[in-house]
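Before relying on records like the one below, remember that each one covers exactly one chain. Contacts with other chains, cofactors or solvent are not represented anywhere in the record.
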Amino acid sequence: TFNLARSFRSPSLEERYQYIDLGSLLRIGNPDLFPERGLFFDAGVRLWYPEFSFSGNVFYNTFADLVTEVPGTYEGRPALIKTNIGDSRLYGYELSIMYNFYKDIVVYGNLSYARGEDTKNNANLPQIAPLNGRLGFKFSMFRTLFADINSEINADKNYSASGEVSTAGYALLNAEFSSMTIKFSKRSRFGATVYGGIENIFNKEYRDFLSTVRGNITAEPGRNFYLKFKFDF
């Protein structure tokens, strides 16, 4: 796969006139924003086999007058203010693999990395997640129950922008279970599927690097149990 593109985007009304009070933090728009301009390059490989699949992409994007939120003050209060940050670039890669190595047992994983740089000021872009991925396996039990055991992995965040903190890496363990679709009758189109699981099984404290709407609350929820029902008709 290969893609080359050019973009132009005028700032939205929200980016120009936003005013959100989160209690301890403000999110402020800027009516004097310039339009964004960009050049995008992406190349990748796709492989499909009966029991194995792989996809990988690399990308390199450049931006001029990129609109983002920069920490500052507004009327004496801490704020994230929409700002044109001059010239910047964003590059990285994404990899995904899946292997059905025995009967209905499937091992899968993905890995992604992004690096954002403000090339005009020789600084790091904000809200860029570190190297992260997911590794897991899926299988069925008694042909009626399906399980997905996986781990979310994040590396250390060392390339922090102004106002951001560097954090250590972490790994979370999750488990999800789902039933086969249960029909209300043999001829009925109506059915239901049950989902349940546990997120963050070991109750680790961690930070979502892309979360910006919690004010001073930076830690994500701990161990979480959930139960869901899906109805088809």
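Residues 99 and 114 are 25 Å apart (CA to CA).
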